[in-house]
Amino acid sequence: MEAGVALDPAAHGEPMTTTALRATPDLATLLSRELVAELLTLARSKGAELAEVYGEYTVHTSFSLEEDRLKTTAYSVAQGVGVRAITGEQTGYAYADGFAPDDLREAARVAGRIASGAAGNGKPIAFRVVQAPPPFTLERPAPIALDEQASVALIQRANHTARAHDGRIHEVTVSLADASKSFIVANSDGVWADDRQYLSRLTVTALALDGDQRQQGFAAGGGSVDAGYFDAVRTPEAIAADAAGSAITLLGAREPEAGAYPVVVSPGWGGVMVHECFGHSMEGDTIRKHTSIRASQLGQQVAAKGVTIVDSGIVPYSRGSFRVDDEGTQARRTVLVDDGILVGYMWDLLNARLTGNEPSGNGRRNSFRDFPLCRMTNTYIEAGPLAPAALIADVTRGLYCKSLGGGSVNPADGNFSFQVTEAWQIENGALTVPVRNATLTGNGNDAMLKIDAVAGDLEIDGTTGSCGKDGQWKPVGVGQPTVRFREIIVGGTAT
Amino acid sequence: MNDPQTSEPIAPPAALEALAADAVERARRAGADAAEAVVQSSRAFTVCASNAQIESLKQSATRGLGLRVIVGGAQGFVSSTDLSPAALDDLARRAVALARFSTPDPANAMPGPLEAGTPAALDLALYDSAVLALPADDKIAMAIELERVALAFDPRITRVDRTRVTSRDGTTALANSLGLTRVSSGTAISASIVALADDRDGKQQTGYYGITRRWLRELPAMEEIAREAARRAVERIGARTVPSARVPVVMHPDVAASWISEMHDAWSGESVIKKESWLTDRLGQAIASPLVTLVDDGRLPGGVGSGPWDGEGVATRRNVLIDRGTCAMFLYDIYHARRAGTRSTGSAVRGYSSVPGIGYHNLYIEPGAESPDAILKKVDRGFYMDDQGSFGFNSVTGDYSFQAAGFWIEGGAKTYPVDGITVASNSLDMLKNVAAVGNDLKWDGDVVSPTLLIGEMTVSGGG
User: Fold this and answer.
1) Does pTM surpass 0.80?
2) Residue B204 to residue A492, Cβ atoms within 8 A
3) Is A199's pLDDT higher than 90?
4) Taking chain B, what is the end-to-end CA distance rounded to the nearest angstrom?
């Protein structure tokens, strides 16, 4: 499955890591190859076709500032090992918090009971280390390089800027949360992969008050970034100004007009629409089980001509990127839609095996406490030919969505909705007044067909997104250039 | 199939209590002025079925500890699943070191035994040994039964997206350096299913239904749960959008429950202190129709959200948030009660890996006198909303704007299924416009409501 690798790790020393700096212990000292091999054998002792061991040690830290006070500084460790056994379409899973060998053996036995036969052949597993190159390299990962004092300084800078932005800013909450994760994944087919992953996120929430009016703005920065990101790419001051500016704009905003009309969505985080409206219906589990309408649409037109949709786990510095996924498959770029035509799906190991496809680096899990699911990484619409202004210029009456909040979809029936936190009314080709509390709704089955213009200003927002599925949350990136839908139902109270 | 449930008993409560007390002592030795440890041990067994067989089985056992310290008035927090003595000492040192980066604040505090109060002697009925005794094979059979019944309900039900049966049990212990110790255990069992019905043009309609209970005998038969999900999916076949209009909206209990779950943060003392709540300055005012009484009750016997004490060890109680239309109180944990010059309302919630925050236990609207049918009959032309999207609430303004599905009402009866619309208003307007409260309160989870009639909301559609 991973091209060009068939190496015995024992002959090549330690598996590669993306950095020499270590916030977490060397997992190899907690989970030896011999023990992993024993657990895989135990998990297959009832005849399971495939067994997998996933060991993890993750440190989360957070600093949060509210009401001008650093309320709490927090440090949390999550560590343990999960064992999965697969037989046919069936999965057995068990885990232990920690690395005590007896607990892990018990987990392996429990997972293996999904099968009910006899052990397969007992030949020892020769592990092959997955030699995937890192999609980008961090010199000084922020979670490692930022000590407590540097972290506090960043959030104080954001707090100061947000409060100074406007006299109507009443309250500011700033948080810096980061994670350093080490993991090992190995399976009975001989895959052995490990990695270290780093995430940082600085968020600012600003509350503006004006008489009876009360509005909140939110902005974030971060990703899988170096410490220098917060000086050179997106500063605390820029994040704070975005949050405070949004809150102030919303004070003067009006309620949206209810109805169906043209909607232009801003680049970057606006890509949450393609993630929800389209991406979820392309995940391999829903394709294999035929619960997605997309299962029968390979080769068909599913989006407007000119629309190309990609899922890529190798977007530099995004929180949705990684070297190998949580099943040991190398991250890659998968074209889902090429010029409107459905050309490929996303696959995790289980669903790829059952359908005769190649895993595409989309097997992801929340932690060692969960078995992997087929998940998106960074999902985006590729750049088109138009100037962004051209998408607004010929709209007589419409909505420009500058900033979206959350969105959701029911993948089986396709119904989606998005909260638009800041929008602008389009009147005769110009943005006129700000609009708040708009909700966009429709059906994902035809939403991508309603795109009638794509601009060239592609941005991928890898700073803040998290996607939930079956109770598991994973960091993701989303992106798009400025995109226009010829008609979407806009919810609001004005008629 | 062998029984995969481990035969080992979950950690005895006394051992967890001792572990919490030990962590507090280590924190004191590391230099904490005050310390509080929470230890949680939990176990869960989940089975999902598909194609009349197991799709996945998952067995989990988690044990973790959270340690909160106050040093010189400043707070630090650490948590881990490594509970070895050396790891606990390391955690204690880190907690004390981290606290020095926080701002000293006289309101940072933990409750002593007197302030925490005595949990009611009432038997909360949190623990059902029958949940633990239920064999794995029975749970597997239940999940398979859910699928079988749904598929047999109607020929248009051709697939079931997911059936799930979960049993869990857990024990939480808390100790603090003021001498407070608490321990309690509970169980839960839940069953849920998503049924899919074939609609025109390859479209599918979904019907979800799920129930969580603490007691096995209170869980309805799988047949009842599966038939309800299947009925919901089939009913939706042929759904279409409607033109935009301002009309009365009848909220199904699930939709009404989602609304009060979105609203609850407005009663949080933290949101009120920061003026982030749309109820700021409205204490004692009429904010709702006199028909509305909203309650958060932590002591409801058998309640999924019930517990004898809250996340800081304070005895839980019955808090009336809206009393016949009047905003009657706000909710506080120890910190925000100190800030507001009042007492904790027993409203701190937390897992072992987080600091306490203000939340709810069992949140519900008290039932009224009218049957759901009688409420429907009051509506000449309107919308019956029984499903919604996930995002659409503004917690600062109370603005409500959700993707919705349900039925169009004409002449007091449901006519045809509707989707592809949104329903919008503001929560204060909605509360004041509650025109009827149903008598159909059912305890399906920890946030529940009877059917509600809202006098007017804006439906936005494509017609």
Assistant:
1) yes
2) no
3) yes
4) 54
